[in-house]
Structure formats: C-alpha cells, structure tokens
Amino acid sequence: MLTRQRELPFGGKLQNHALNHRLNEEFRKYFPEIEYIPILRDVQENRYWFNENLLKVKDGKRTHNIARSVVEIIDRYVQAKVTAFQAFIQTCERLKAIPEENDIAVSKFIEGLLAPNADARIFEIASYAILRYHYHDQVVYFGFDLAHIKPENLRLFKTGRTNANDGGIDFVMRPLGRFFQVTESLDVKKYFLDIDKIERFPISFVVKSVEDVDTIRQRLREGAQRLYAIHAIVEKYMACIEEIINIPMLLNFFRTAQAQGYLRQILDEVIIQSKIEFNYETVE
C-alpha cells in the first residue's frame, strides 16, 4: 500500500506515519462502534494492506465489495487535484511574467491564498513566504562578549513539508531559535500537543483565522481551563504560546513587504515552495 501511495501524483515523498498509527486512531475516534480497523500491518515485513471488510456493503442477503468503485473515486479525486494544482502553478507563472505595473493582480492573488477557506497547504506556503520577507530585514545583535557583537538579520526557514510528522515545527527562525507552527484549528488539545512535542519550548502559532488575536488566546485559555482543573498547569501551557499570528496580521505584513518592493520575491517563494511541496519538479 505504501508503494502504491508513492506511485501516485504528489505521493513520492509520503511517509508511513499515517499507516503505522494515525489513520487507525482517527478511524477509531469517529467510528468506535466498528470492530474493523482500516490499515492491516505486517510489522516484520513492514507492509500494509487496506482492510476490505470496510468496503463490503450488505444489501439484504447479498454482499457487495465496493473496492473498485472506491479506487475509481480516488483516481478521479487525484486527477482533480492534479488539474487544480497545475492551474495554480500556471496562474503563478503567468502572474510572474506580467509587467510590474500590473502588480495589483499579483497582490490580489497572494491575498486570496490567505483566505479562511484557502487550501491548508497553500495557506502554509503563503504564510511562510510572507513571514520570511517580514522578518528578513529585522536585525538583532549577537556575540560571545561585548567586544565581538555583530548584527545579524532574522532568517526564517521552512523545516519540512506540510502535514509532516516533524514534531510540530513548520518554520524555524535564525538566530533567535523561534519555532512556528501553522494551524487552522482552535482545538486547545492540538496546541498543547505541539507544545508537548517540543518539551514545552515556546512556540508561535500562525492561525488560519480572521478572529482577533486576543479572542483566539482567550478561547485557548478557556479550553485549557476546561481540560485542566489546575491553574498552574494552564498558565504553564499558555506561557509557551509565544505569539499568535492571524490572517489580518499576515495581510498587514504582506502589504508592508509589498510597499518595500518584495511582492515579486514573495510570489517566487510561493512558486518554489509549492513545487517542492507537491513534488511538481526537482527544484535546485
């Protein structure tokens, strides 16, 4: 099954985390009454199969195996995603080629990638491109002694692919060592899980939400208070949320970067990261 996944479009870099544990646990969470699990695994051979018992539908006394129909649906879905992504890249490339006096079209396109209903992967990529140019001209001073302090620009790095099992770190900032996680959820359990995965190191969250930052933080605090009865635990977790960056903040950062002349660089970064993310082509 893993081999087949990697043969499909966008699947070349897929890892086996979902097959090992995640998919089965998510299935149990939503369908606790069903005795079967989706993924069957041979631990010694490290091979995976889908449990076809979940694809057998009873119609009175007859049983129908809908596996072939499901595969056809998946194939159609993959083709739709391929078509949509190719159209996205073509739009990016077309915008890249238009004269700079038409920058308004480029600007509106990038702002559209930050919409609340935007694709989660594209939102993460656009967020990274914007934050990279938001921070890159900010300077901090570092040195091991007062006689050897030197200025360094803040640099943001994307640490892996979206939805990767990388410990909840989407972006890392040098030289401050700040961690960023992109999310579209306001489930406090997810935030605290990300915090736990990095041993409660402070982390900034980029949230795909137009809600006010103070409102988001308050909702997380209220969720934490329902989850934990002990005030000290709630405060310890909340203190690990270094900053919350919402969609309005990203839009402000983007417009500032655009005013500084970085619009085309942001578009280029979106194109590069999108091609890497979706295995569109090998990027040097």
What keyword list fits this structure?
alpha+beta; 2 domains; two-stranded antiparallel ribbon; 11 strands; five-stranded mixed beta sheet
Give a written overview of the molecule.
This protein is an alpha+beta fold. It folds into two domains: 64 residues, no CATH class; 197 residues, no CATH class. Helices cover 49% and strands 17% of the residues. It is built from ten helices and eleven strands. The strands form four sheets. A five-stranded mixed beta sheet has the order 7-8-9-10-11, sandwiched between helices. The protein has a two-stranded antiparallel ribbon with strand order 1-2. The longest helix is centred in the first third of the chain and has 31 residues. The two termini are 30 Å apart. The mean pLDDT is 89.
Helix fraction, binned, reads 40-55%
SS element count, helices: 10
Tell me what portion of residues adopts beta-strand conformation: 15-25%
Low-confidence stretches: none
Q: How many individual domains?
A: 2
Q: So what's the overall shape? A: globular
Rounded to an integer in angstroms, the radius of gyration calculated over CA atoms is 22 Å
Strand adjacency order, main sheet: 7-8-9-10-11
- Find the structural class using helix and strand composition: alpha+beta
Instruction: Please give the alpha-carbon distance between the first and last residues.
Output: 30 Å
Assembly form of the protein: single chain
- The total strand number stands at 11
Helix and strand run: HHEEEEHHHEEEEEHEHHEHH
